[in-house]
Design goal:
By secondary structure, the chain is of the alpha/beta class. Helices cover about 30% and strands about 20% of the residues. Strands 1, 2, 11, 12, 13, 14 and 20 form a 7-stranded mixed sheet that branches. The protein has a 7-stranded mixed sheet with strand order 9-8-16-17-18-15-19. Strand 8 (about 160-165) and strand 9 (about 170) form a beta hairpin. Helix 1 (about 5-10) packs across helix 16, helix 9 (about 230-235) crosses helix 11 (about 265-275) and helix 10 packs across helix 11. The longest helix has 19 residues, at about 180-200.
Length: about 550
């Protein structure tokens, strides 16, 4: 059995583990559970291999389309096809839809289980703008028409973010305490560099950095940044400040689950430049208590067609003029569904195990690696927040390998009997398989101890106030943009239909963002519409 010190050293590092062990002993077991059992069912696709195609029952209906996967891409494809009157069935292995954008509920209220915000879109990102208009988040345009106007209540409230650095909280995420004039000069030079990149456009007027990438330039000079790591780029550009490099490294861990020395320079610069507006300043952040589950819920309600939860897609094959889809329920029983077209809204490593010939077709497109994350949702006594300055929405610990926590109730006014804090940890090891094995070996009690010991550095009395901790282990949380992935995505055939099968996933952009998944879902849905002779204006370019 792993000792407490060994456990903390494994996930928090030796200095933090030593400090945690000096502060206190282990705490009695806190209520809570692992909530990833449904996700682990997907391992059957890997472990059992491709199952045989089965004959459908005689009364099985023929759908226009079946969507496999209820994440953002699958929901977007379902909504787009259903809007034009197609009969659509979506199957999702989890008990709820949303994928890594799903949310939950505890005594502290709604909370995220994954992605917890979107950035205010630029006007060029038409589908994202329209979606946020439907939700009342975008309420108009600026006088010059160059930017969107956001509803005041939708924007993250102050204090937005803070950093626990040198024993106290600082506003913002840059570690300013003790910074030298040279440190601050480098920070300003980096910001000026980002502003130039954010304003850059190609000969067709397309931005070099914008989300979703459907609207971005593919200039060779921009893609050249994808050949080197961000660490190499920082060295090449003469950025030496340890404080700036910590900030950039945090950004890479936060969005990509990678350290700066392994992240594509294009991806790291995309993180900063794509979040800048026409004026070069950072874009507003739009969070919800349940995170991007607010968007997921809207898409699920808006879309037409059935959704079957707890149903795992196992095999897709073409028979004559239709597709056969073998699905499996929680009890392991299988049946065959029929459709004229199929949308696979799952990662490539899953899709290739389900469809004959797909791996061979995409042999030139190496399936990207996925990083592992752990998300813990804590129910905390409100007295916790009264011990110090007001909680920020985003709370980061400078010395910690974790990503800190968000206060899920930050946007909510009404009083509640508890707070909901969502703690994020990205396992940034270079061997994804070894990381997943390490991750799945950690039980609820052990991870609760990691979370509490991590938070204890900034909140010494946190154990007195925590009532419950629930934990979700994401073994394949997000695509990791290592050097070369963006260029491969730009050139790959992996996004093209394969017979009557269409693919939709954020990995086809090389970055795991809501905007990318949403647009790939719309694209796949419109491919199906065109293939079935339903001609409609494109959501992507209208």
């Amino acid at each position: 059995m792993t000792s407490r010190r060994d456990l903390l050293q494994l996930f928090l590092g030796a200095p933090l583990a030593l400090a945690a062990c000096k502060r206190s002993g282990s705490t009695p077991r806190i209520e809570g559970e692992l909530v990833d059992e449904e996700l682990l069912r997907g391992h059957r696709v890997r472990d059992e291999g491709r199952v045989p195609l089965l004959e459908p029952s005689t009364d099985e209906p023929l759908y226009d389309a079946i969507v496999i996967g209820g994440g953002v891409a699958g929901l977007a494809a379902r909504e787009r096809m259903g809007r034009e009157g197609l009969s659509v069935l979506l199957v999702e292995a989890d008990s709820v839809v949303g994928g890594t954008a799903k949310g939950g509920q505890n005594a502290g209220g709604a909370h995220p289980w994954g992605a917890h915000y979107v950035t205010a879109p630029l006007v060029e990102a038409k589908p994202i703008v329209r979606l946020l208009e439907e939700l009342g988040v975008i309420v108009g345009r600026s006088e010059d028409g160059r930017d969107v106007v956001l509803a005041e209540e939708a924007v993250v409230r102050a204090p937005e973010e803070r950093l626990f650095h040198l024993g106290r909280w600082e506003e913002g995420l840059y570690p300013r305490a003790g910074a030298s004039a040279e440190d601050l000069a480098e920070l300003e030079r980096f910001r000026a560099h980002v502003r130039l990149l954010a304003a850059r456009r190609d000969a067709q007027g397309r931005r070099a950095f914008i989300a979703p990438l459907h609207y971005a330039s593919r200039d060779a000079e921009v893609l050249e940044l994808d050949r080197v790591t961000m660490g190499t780029w920082l060295d090449r550009e003469g950025y030496r400040s340890a404080r700036l490099r910590w900030l950039v490294d945090y950004a890479c861990r936060d969005d990509f689950g990678l350290r700066v020395e392994h992240t594509s320079a294009w991806a790291a610069l995309f993180y900063f430049a794509a979040r800048s507006g026409p004026d070069g300043e950072p874009r507003a952040v739009i969070p919800w208590p349940e995170g991007n589950a607010r968007l997921v819920t809207h898409l699920a309600r808006k879309g037409r067609g059935s959704i079957e939860h707890g149903v795992l897609g196992r095999r897709v094959g073409e028979v004559g003029e239709e597709c056969r889809v073998v699905v499996e329920d929680r009890q392991g029983s299988r049946r065959t569904r029929r459709a004229r077209r199929v949308v696979l809204a799952v990662p490539a490593y899953v899709a290739r195990r389900m469809v004959d010939g797909l791996a061979e077709r995409d042999a030139g497109f190496e399936a990207p690696s996925y990083g592992s994350w752990v998300v813990a949702n804590l129910v905390v006594d409100p007295a916790f927040a009264r011990q110090e300055a007001p909680l920020a929405w985003d709370n980061v610990l400078h010395r910690s390998p974790s990503l800190g926590y968000v206060n899920a109730r930050h946007q909510v006014d009404e009083r509640a009997p508890a707070l909901a804090l969502t703690h994020y940890y990205a396992l940034c090891d270079t061997d994804p398989k070894a990381v997943r094995e390490k991750l799945l070996a950690v039980d609820h009690t052990s991870w609760s101890e990691v979370v509490l010991s991590d938070l204890e550095a900034a909140h010494p009395r946190i154990r007195e106030h925590v009532r419950r901790i629930d934990v979700l282990r994401w073994g394949h949380a997000m695509v990791r943009p290592v050097p070369g992935l963006r260029a491969r995505c730009a050139e790959a055939s992996a996004a093209r239909p394969f017979g009557r099968v269409h693919v939709a996933h954020s990995e086809l952009s090389g970055v795991a963002l809501f905007e990318e998944a949403y647009v790939h879902g719309l694209r796949a849905g419109e491919e199906v519409l065109a293939a079935l002779g339903r001609h409609a204006p494109s959501d992507l370019d209208a």
